[in-house]
Every structure is written in structure tokens, then in C-alpha cells.
UniProtKB/TrEMBL annotation:
This is DUF1624 domain-containing protein. The keyword Membrane applies. The chain crosses the membrane at residues 50-72, 84-106, 118-135, 142-159, 198-218, 230-249, 255-279, 291-315, 339-360. Residues 10-154 form the Heparan-alpha-glucosaminide N-acetyltransferase catalytic domain. Keywords: Membrane, Transmembrane, Transmembrane helix. It comes from Dyadobacter luticola.
Amino acid sequence: MEKQLATSSRLLSLDAMRGFTIAAMIMVNFPGSEAHVFQTLHHTIWNGLTFTDLIAPVFLYIVGVSIALAYSKKLLTDAPKGDLYKKIVIRSLKIFAVGMFLNMLPNFDFANLRYTGTLHRIAIVFLVCAMLFLNTNWKQQANLGIIILIVYWLGMVLIPTPGQGKVMLEPGNNLAAWIDQQFLPGKMWQGNWDPEGILSTFPSIVTGITGMLAGRLMLTSLTPNEKSNYLMSTGLFVAAAGYFWGLTFPVNENLWTSSFVLVTSGFASMLLGTLYFIIDIKGRTKGISPGVIFGANAIAAYVLADILALFFYLLHFDGKTLNEMAVTSLSEAGMDPRLASMLYAVSFVFINFIPSYILYKRKIFIKL
């Protein structure tokens, strides 16, 4: 790590971006009715990109930025790396363990346990990226990211899927799915393949690396306006490169394709650059408080939402769950069922905001 980097100062724009990303994640994860959801609030079935598909990579990008801001100061003080390694590993294990706990709810059916998920991937990306940040410079990180994306692309489009005799990029019939079928323990999300599987985790690490590169940029001696311009212009270029790469290796969240990494990281960079300009440079902070509050306990808010949603789904009134009652009532009043489903999801976000607000006001920050 270059010693000329400045010590990090907290970015209000990053805090807000993290919080609003978690809020969006909660909203799309818990609609009023899975049968009635606007298309962009669904994950893309296969190739393509929706609003929902952007949320996970944006959060991993934020993880990367946060690593650069948090650990640069520790490196400048020459803190013993052994202590840092220990804390990184423990934090990763705690996030992974919480992910496993959520996967076991409500029945604790160990025979059908899934070993992958959103928190699992966050834990792995954090672990690998933090270790990389402590032991490599930004050029080495960028080169490693490029190599991973190219090798992943070549492997997926040149290596025939075993048992098929040809290259395939279809659900359950591709190299990543075959590797999961051979080596991934436990239950898979889609039966014979998993969107957070083994092979696709490698390009997801690159998403974290792109965030680290953005974080490193924020620590340079460039002026704030220059940093914002670089984030937005580089983001546009990277997203465009991902689009054109997608013509041969489709943008696909389930496979976390190389083109998907570039398109989503480019978007995240443009978003951060825009928020940084508006909030940190221009000082326009009106309306960002909910994001900052959610962001202060981001993973805790995500976990609480998962548990609270399960509790709501277990509640029954006249044979209907709370969400079913809400959607049915609004639909019978003449509202589009998709809008009713979204309104329930937004209301659920506000319900989860209450404990986050209480924690924030009491200055309680839960760090896994």
C-alpha cells in the first residue's frame, strides 16, 4: 500500500449509499406477494438487468470502498498485520455464521441446509478483499481483477460443460452449475445450481476490488471535484465496456458474468461520484438521514428484516398472512396488485427503520 495515501475521513455520501442500498435490498426481498411484483423489482430470470439485480453488486462495491477507507489508516500507523488478519477472519466468520443461521430458519432442517447466500458472499468478498488490500497495491489489485474476469470468461465460453459435450450458458447447464453439482455441499437455491455458487464467487470478488480501487481514489490528494469527476467518467467507461462485453458474454447476475461485474461496478461508481458531489462537496444533505441511519447498522438491519419477515409470515388472520391481507385488501379496493405488493414492501422497510433509528439515536452500532 502506498504511503502517500491520506488518512481516511468519513464520507457521508458512502454512508447514505450503504443505507439506501440496504433499504432497497429489504424492499425487493420482501414484497407483499411474490405473484404480484413489478418486473424491475424481480431478479432477471436469466440474461439481462433489472433494478433488483443492481443491489447486491452495489453493496459489494461499497464493501470494497469501506475496506480501503478503513484499513488505509491502519496501514499508515504500521499496526501489526497479524492482529488485523485475526480481526478480518473473525468478522468474516461471524457474517458467514449469521448467514447460516438465517438459512436454517425456521425449521433448522440440517438435511436440507443451504451453505450459500447473500451474507455468505459478503463474508467471502470481505475476507479476500481485505487480505488483498493489506498485501498488494492498487495496480496489483486491478491486474488481478482483470485476470479473474478474463479467465472466468474464457473458462465459461470455451470449456465444454461436462456431460453435455459442448459449451452451454443455460440455467443449470453450464460450467459453474456443474462445479456446484460436484463440489457445493448442501441444498442449492435452484435445485441443481446456485446463484451464489463456487465459481461465480470469483468474479464477485472483483466487484469488491472495483470498490477498493474507488476507495483508493478517494484517499489520494486529488481535489474533491476531481475525485467526483473521475468516479463518474470512469464509471461510465467501465459500464460501457461491460455492455459491449455483454454482447458475447451476456450480463447475467446468476452467473455473475464478467460483463455483469463491469456494468454494475460502473453504475456503482457513477452513483458514488454523484452522491459524493451532491452531499460531500455541495453539502446538500436534505433527505439523506434515513440512508445514513440504515447504513450505520446495515447488516444488522438486513438480519432483523429477515427475522421480522419470518415472524410476519407466520402470523395468520382468518387463514391469511399479514402480507396477504394487505395485498388482498388494497387489490379489492381497486389498486393494481403489483402496486399493493410494493406498498407493503415499502411499509415493511419503514417498520425496519424504527429499530435502526433507535439504535442510531442511542449511538449503538452493531458491527459483526
